[in-house]
Amino acid sequence: MKVNAYGVVKKGQSFEKFQIDLEDLKADEVQVKVKYCGICHSDIHLLDDDWAEEYPVIPGHEIVGEITEIGSNVKDFKKGMIVGVGWQCGSCGKCKSCMKGKENLCGDMVSTCVNKKGGFAELVNIDENFVFEIPDEMDLAKVGPLFCGGATVYNPLEKYGIKARDNVAIIGIGGLGHLAIQFAKALGTNVTAISSSVSKKEDSFKLGASNFISTDEELEKYNRTFDFILSTASADLDWNKYLKALAPEGKLCFVGVPSSGEIKIDYFELMIPEREIVAGSIASPTQIKKLIKLAAEKNVYPIVEMIKPDQLDEAFEKLRNNQVRYRFIVDFVS
Ligand code: NAP
Ligand code: ZN
Fold it and tell me: What is the pTM of this model?
């Protein structure tokens, strides 16, 4: 079947609308007609061929849409249901990680838009284990980013046992970071926002932070303060400065991808206070279901800028230049 899609046919080129072949629906898959799709910073890496991508690239992995077809083995979904899809759309189902419900750590994970046509296509076929029903009361136009950005920041907060009254700092107040402030607040922690953009201070407080630090500031007065620092920044920063701001046994957790792909730290700042460097990679389906419930209860949503597909080039340019407040959503409905 031919379907419309928006994508880039070669590295460095603009978005174009063209038709692609959609593979036949498999027995375990549902077909989703895309209504809305968020734009994540990881989509930039796909356009830039950073992650061994086949062209044309059709990005998009913060999908909200309606089920239009179901495969013959599908049990939990029906035509007409409104669902969300994030970064992952498949796993082997047999490895140790899959068996313990950590499908996001499967070595054979299938990604929604890596060497696959993502949510900027009219229809996508997704394994039913990676499709999530959206509660009726949720705002469909805004919920998409919870399936990747939200999932990615919720996972480490849960996995590393972050609890009420912990001192948590979030570095990088972009798409992921502004959701991280809200989830950390929803868990009852004391949240500090750390940002290279002083213009984000007011918003950080409104989202639930009780303190704001500029990345230019010296951090001596925060030495040994934070129980958990979550970096969502897409840049290389002076990580030793943040390591020192961790309390003994505190954790510096990376979910953002530093531009060099490397992190350099002072061994003694790590070893003597028994600090830990950890990371998070999207979230498991079980965690995604939990965080959607929590978001519905605590009213956790991204702040969004809605765009039409013909504004994709402009939107990606703004995202590259840190000019988004705080997530673009492509509206494929109106
Ligand atoms: P985003 O909206 O572009 O936010 C990134 C933020 O990083 C910016 O808003 C900015 O925050 C900060 N930043 C950017 N350049 C900086 C610089 N030169 N110096 C200091 N700070 C800088 O991106 P996103 O969609 O939230 O994604 C963030 C990162 O997470 C990306 O690297 C993305 O690929 C990665 N990601 C990882 C996973 C995973 O599973 N681990 C999942 C999704 C995304 P301030 O203005 O506040 O400084
Ligand atoms: Zn993403």
Answer: 0.98
